[in-house]
Protein backbone atom coordinates (compact mmCIF):
# COMPACT_ATOMS: atom_id res chain seq x y z
CA UNK A 1 0.00 0.00 0.00
CA UNK A 2 2.99 2.30 0.52
CA UNK A 3 3.35 2.47 -3.28
CA UNK A 4 0.05 4.37 -3.39
CA UNK A 5 1.29 7.02 -0.95
CA UNK A 6 4.57 7.37 -2.86
CA UNK A 7 2.61 7.90 -6.08
CA UNK A 8 0.24 10.46 -4.51
CA UNK A 9 3.11 12.41 -2.94
CA UNK A 10 4.96 12.36 -6.27
CA UNK A 11 2.07 13.80 -8.32
CA UNK A 12 1.34 16.47 -5.68
CA UNK A 13 4.96 17.64 -5.85
CA UNK A 14 4.82 17.40 -9.65
CA UNK A 15 1.70 19.58 -9.67
CA UNK A 16 3.71 22.39 -8.08
CA UNK A 17 5.64 22.66 -11.37
CA UNK A 18 2.47 24.20 -12.83
CA UNK A 19 3.12 27.28 -10.66
CA UNK A 20 6.33 28.04 -12.55
CA UNK A 21 4.68 31.16 -14.00
CA UNK A 22 5.05 32.82 -10.59
CA UNK A 23 8.48 34.03 -11.72
CA UNK A 24 6.82 36.44 -14.18
CA UNK A 25 4.60 38.16 -11.59
CA UNK A 26 7.21 40.72 -10.62
CA UNK A 27 8.16 41.61 -14.19
CA UNK A 28 6.92 44.75 -15.94
CA UNK A 29 3.95 44.32 -18.29
CA UNK A 30 5.94 45.23 -21.42
CA UNK A 31 8.68 42.73 -20.62
CA UNK A 32 6.11 40.07 -19.70
CA UNK A 33 4.30 40.55 -23.03
CA UNK A 34 7.56 40.09 -24.94
CA UNK A 35 8.37 36.94 -22.98
CA UNK A 36 4.85 35.57 -23.46
CA UNK A 37 5.01 36.07 -27.25
CA UNK A 38 8.29 34.14 -27.32
CA UNK A 39 6.85 31.42 -25.06
CA UNK A 40 3.85 31.04 -27.37
CA UNK A 41 6.29 30.06 -30.12
CA UNK A 42 7.98 27.69 -27.67
CA UNK A 43 4.54 26.30 -26.80
CA UNK A 44 3.90 25.42 -30.45
CA UNK A 45 7.16 23.51 -30.65
CA UNK A 46 6.68 21.72 -27.33
CA UNK A 47 3.06 20.76 -28.09
CA UNK A 48 4.01 19.33 -31.49
CA UNK A 49 7.09 17.70 -30.00
CA UNK A 50 5.04 16.15 -27.19
CA UNK A 51 2.52 14.79 -29.69
CA UNK A 52 4.97 13.39 -32.27
CA UNK A 53 8.02 12.45 -30.16
CA UNK A 54 6.41 11.49 -26.85
CA UNK A 55 2.72 10.55 -27.01
CA UNK A 56 2.37 8.99 -30.50
CA UNK A 57 5.44 6.72 -30.21
CA UNK A 58 4.18 5.64 -26.79
CA UNK A 59 0.72 4.67 -28.01
CA UNK A 60 2.08 3.08 -31.22
CA UNK A 61 3.56 0.37 -28.99
CA UNK A 62 0.09 -0.60 -27.76
CA UNK A 63 -0.60 -2.47 -31.00
CA UNK A 64 -4.03 -0.87 -31.38
CA UNK A 65 -4.63 -0.53 -35.14
CA UNK A 66 -7.26 2.17 -34.63
CA UNK A 67 -5.04 4.44 -32.54
CA UNK A 68 -4.61 7.08 -35.25
CA UNK A 69 -8.36 7.19 -35.68
CA UNK A 70 -8.51 8.24 -32.03
CA UNK A 71 -5.91 10.95 -32.75
CA UNK A 72 -8.15 12.25 -35.54
CA UNK A 73 -11.13 12.00 -33.20
CA UNK A 74 -9.24 14.10 -30.63
CA UNK A 75 -8.41 16.73 -33.25
CA UNK A 76 -12.03 16.92 -34.44
CA UNK A 77 -13.33 16.91 -30.87
CA UNK A 78 -11.22 19.95 -30.01
CA UNK A 79 -12.41 21.68 -33.18
CA UNK A 80 -16.05 21.08 -32.22
CA UNK A 81 -15.42 22.27 -28.66
CA UNK A 82 -13.79 25.45 -29.91
CA UNK A 83 -16.68 26.13 -32.27
CA UNK A 84 -19.12 25.59 -29.41
CA UNK A 85 -17.19 27.98 -27.14
CA UNK A 86 -17.25 30.65 -29.88
CA UNK A 87 -20.96 30.05 -30.49
CA UNK A 88 -21.77 30.12 -26.77
CA UNK A 89 -19.99 33.45 -26.27
CA UNK A 90 -21.59 35.04 -29.32
CA UNK A 91 -25.04 33.59 -28.61
CA UNK A 92 -24.82 35.05 -25.11
CA UNK A 93 -23.87 38.46 -26.49
CA UNK A 94 -20.30 38.22 -25.15
CA UNK A 95 -18.59 37.88 -28.52
CA UNK A 96 -16.96 41.29 -28.37
CA UNK A 97 -16.68 41.50 -24.61
CA UNK A 98 -14.96 38.16 -23.99
CA UNK A 99 -11.27 38.54 -23.17
CA UNK A 100 -10.54 34.81 -23.17
CA UNK A 101 -9.65 33.13 -26.44
CA UNK A 102 -11.16 29.62 -26.75
CA UNK A 103 -7.64 28.20 -27.00
CA UNK A 104 -7.27 28.81 -23.25
CA UNK A 105 -10.09 26.41 -22.43
CA UNK A 106 -8.96 23.89 -25.04
CA UNK A 107 -5.45 23.93 -23.62
CA UNK A 108 -6.74 23.36 -20.09
CA UNK A 109 -8.82 20.39 -21.29
CA UNK A 110 -5.93 18.89 -23.27
CA UNK A 111 -3.54 19.43 -20.37
CA UNK A 112 -6.01 17.82 -17.95
CA UNK A 113 -6.11 14.71 -20.20
CA UNK A 114 -2.32 14.65 -20.38
CA UNK A 115 -1.87 15.08 -16.61
CA UNK A 116 -4.41 12.33 -15.93
CA UNK A 117 -2.36 9.96 -18.08
CA UNK A 118 0.87 11.09 -16.39
CA UNK A 119 -0.72 10.21 -13.04
CA UNK A 120 -1.76 6.81 -14.40
CA UNK A 121 1.77 6.18 -15.72
CA UNK A 122 3.29 7.14 -12.36
CA UNK A 123 0.89 4.84 -10.51
CA UNK A 124 1.57 1.97 -12.92
CA UNK A 125 5.34 2.39 -12.54
CA UNK A 126 5.12 2.33 -8.73
CA UNK A 127 3.00 -0.83 -8.96
CA UNK A 128 5.97 -2.43 -10.74
CA UNK A 129 8.62 -1.16 -8.30
CA UNK A 130 9.58 1.96 -6.36
CA UNK A 131 12.86 2.54 -8.29
CA UNK A 132 10.99 2.45 -11.62
CA UNK A 133 8.43 4.86 -10.13
CA UNK A 134 11.20 7.30 -9.16
CA UNK A 135 12.75 7.16 -12.65
CA UNK A 136 9.32 7.76 -14.19
CA UNK A 137 8.72 10.78 -11.94
CA UNK A 138 12.07 12.26 -12.96
CA UNK A 139 11.35 11.68 -16.66
CA UNK A 140 7.89 13.23 -16.46
CA UNK A 141 9.15 16.21 -14.42
CA UNK A 142 11.78 17.06 -17.04
CA UNK A 143 9.19 17.33 -19.79
CA UNK A 144 6.60 18.98 -17.54
CA UNK A 145 8.76 22.06 -16.92
CA UNK A 146 8.78 23.29 -20.55
CA UNK A 147 5.19 22.03 -20.96
CA UNK A 148 3.91 24.03 -17.97
CA UNK A 149 5.79 27.13 -19.11
CA UNK A 150 4.08 26.75 -22.46
CA UNK A 151 0.65 26.24 -20.86
CA UNK A 152 1.12 29.36 -18.75
CA UNK A 153 2.12 31.36 -21.83
CA UNK A 154 -0.95 30.15 -23.75
CA UNK A 155 -3.33 31.10 -20.93
CA UNK A 156 -1.83 34.58 -20.46
CA UNK A 157 -1.70 35.16 -24.22
CA UNK A 158 -5.35 34.06 -24.42
CA UNK A 159 -6.52 36.68 -21.92
CA UNK A 160 -6.00 35.20 -18.45
CA UNK A 161 -4.29 37.30 -15.79
CA UNK A 162 -1.03 35.80 -14.49
CA UNK A 163 -2.64 34.88 -11.17
CA UNK A 164 -5.67 33.30 -12.84
CA UNK A 165 -3.43 31.45 -15.31
CA UNK A 166 -1.39 29.94 -12.46
CA UNK A 167 -4.51 28.89 -10.52
CA UNK A 168 -6.16 27.21 -13.50
CA UNK A 169 -2.89 25.63 -14.61
CA UNK A 170 -2.48 24.20 -11.10
CA UNK A 171 -6.08 22.90 -11.01
CA UNK A 172 -5.53 21.25 -14.40
CA UNK A 173 -2.43 19.52 -13.06
CA UNK A 174 -4.41 17.95 -10.19
CA UNK A 175 -6.07 15.51 -12.61
CA UNK A 176 -2.82 13.55 -12.19
CA UNK A 177 -4.03 12.64 -8.68
CA UNK A 178 -7.23 11.28 -10.21
CA UNK A 179 -5.09 9.25 -12.61
CA UNK A 180 -3.19 7.71 -9.69
CA UNK A 181 -6.32 6.86 -7.69
CA UNK A 182 -8.20 5.31 -10.62
CA UNK A 183 -5.16 3.31 -11.73
CA UNK A 184 -4.67 1.81 -8.26
CA UNK A 185 -8.37 1.01 -7.98
CA UNK A 186 -8.86 -0.38 -11.48
CA UNK A 187 -5.33 -1.28 -12.60
CA UNK A 188 -6.37 -4.12 -14.91
CA UNK A 189 -9.57 -2.58 -16.29
CA UNK A 190 -8.13 0.86 -17.19
CA UNK A 191 -4.97 -0.45 -18.87
CA UNK A 192 -6.57 -0.67 -22.32
CA UNK A 193 -7.99 2.86 -22.11
CA UNK A 194 -4.65 4.63 -21.54
CA UNK A 195 -3.57 4.55 -25.24
CA UNK A 196 -6.98 5.92 -26.30
CA UNK A 197 -6.82 8.79 -23.78
CA UNK A 198 -3.27 9.55 -24.91
CA UNK A 199 -4.33 9.53 -28.56
CA UNK A 200 -7.17 12.00 -27.90
CA UNK A 201 -4.75 14.25 -25.97
CA UNK A 202 -2.26 14.09 -28.88
CA UNK A 203 -4.98 15.12 -31.34
CA UNK A 204 -5.86 18.02 -29.05
CA UNK A 205 -2.24 19.17 -28.83
CA UNK A 206 -1.85 19.06 -32.61
CA UNK A 207 -5.06 21.06 -33.07
CA UNK A 208 -4.10 23.73 -30.51
CA UNK A 209 -0.62 24.16 -32.01
CA UNK A 210 -1.64 24.28 -35.67
CA UNK A 211 -5.14 25.80 -35.64
CA UNK A 212 -4.82 28.31 -32.80
CA UNK A 213 -1.23 29.20 -31.98
CA UNK A 214 0.53 29.16 -35.37
CA UNK A 215 -2.01 31.67 -36.81
CA UNK A 216 -1.25 33.88 -33.80
CA UNK A 217 2.49 34.10 -34.46
CA UNK A 218 1.78 34.67 -38.17
CA UNK A 219 0.39 38.06 -37.10
CA UNK A 220 3.91 39.21 -36.27
CA UNK A 221 5.25 41.56 -38.98
CA UNK A 222 8.70 42.54 -37.70
CA UNK A 223 11.39 40.45 -39.39
CA UNK A 224 13.50 40.33 -36.23
CA UNK A 225 10.64 38.93 -34.13
CA UNK A 226 9.68 36.48 -36.88
CA UNK A 227 13.20 35.03 -36.82
CA UNK A 228 13.20 34.83 -33.00
CA UNK A 229 9.81 33.10 -32.92
CA UNK A 230 10.85 30.64 -35.62
CA UNK A 231 14.05 29.74 -33.78
CA UNK A 232 12.25 29.40 -30.43
CA UNK A 233 9.60 27.17 -32.03
CA UNK A 234 12.34 24.85 -33.30
CA UNK A 235 13.97 24.91 -29.86
CA UNK A 236 10.66 23.84 -28.33
CA UNK A 237 10.55 20.82 -30.65
CA UNK A 238 14.20 19.94 -29.97
CA UNK A 239 13.85 20.26 -26.18
CA UNK A 240 11.00 17.74 -26.12
CA UNK A 241 12.88 15.47 -28.53
CA UNK A 242 16.00 15.59 -26.33
CA UNK A 243 14.02 14.88 -23.16
CA UNK A 244 12.11 11.96 -24.64
CA UNK A 245 15.33 10.53 -26.08
CA UNK A 246 17.31 10.82 -22.84
CA UNK A 247 14.59 9.87 -20.38
CA UNK A 248 12.33 7.30 -21.99
CA UNK A 249 9.79 5.92 -19.56
Short description:
This protein has helices at 2-15, 29-60, 67-91, 102-128, 130-157, 162-173, 175-185, 187-190, 194-217, 223-246.
Structural class estimated from helices and strands = mainly alpha
Q: From the alpha carbons, calculate the radius of gyration and give it in angstroms.
A: 18 Å
Low-confidence stretches: none
Number of extended strands: 0
**Average pLDDT reading:** 80
Report how far the terminal alpha carbons are from each other. 23 Å
Number of helices: 10
Strand and helix order: HHHHHHHHHH
Helix content: over 70%
- Main beta-sheet strand count, sense and barrel state: none
- Beta strand %: under 5%
Mass-distribution shape: globular
Describe this structure in words.
This protein has 249 residues and is mainly alpha-helical. Helix content is 81%, strand content 0%. The protein has helices at residues 2-15, 29-60, 67-91, 102-128, 130-157, 162-173, 175-185, 187-190, 194-217, 223-246. Helix 2 packs across helix 5 (130-157) and helix 2 (29-60) crosses helix 10. The radius of gyration is 18 Å and the shape is globular. The model has no long low-confidence stretch (mean pLDDT 80).
Amino acid sequence: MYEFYYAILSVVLLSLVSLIGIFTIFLKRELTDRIIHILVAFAIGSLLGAAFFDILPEIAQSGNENIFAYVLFGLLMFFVMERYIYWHHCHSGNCKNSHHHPVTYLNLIGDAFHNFVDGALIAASFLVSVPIGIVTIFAIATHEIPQELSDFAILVHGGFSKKRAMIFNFLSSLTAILGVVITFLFAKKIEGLIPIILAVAAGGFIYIATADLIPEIHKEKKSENIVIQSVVLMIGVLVVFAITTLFEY
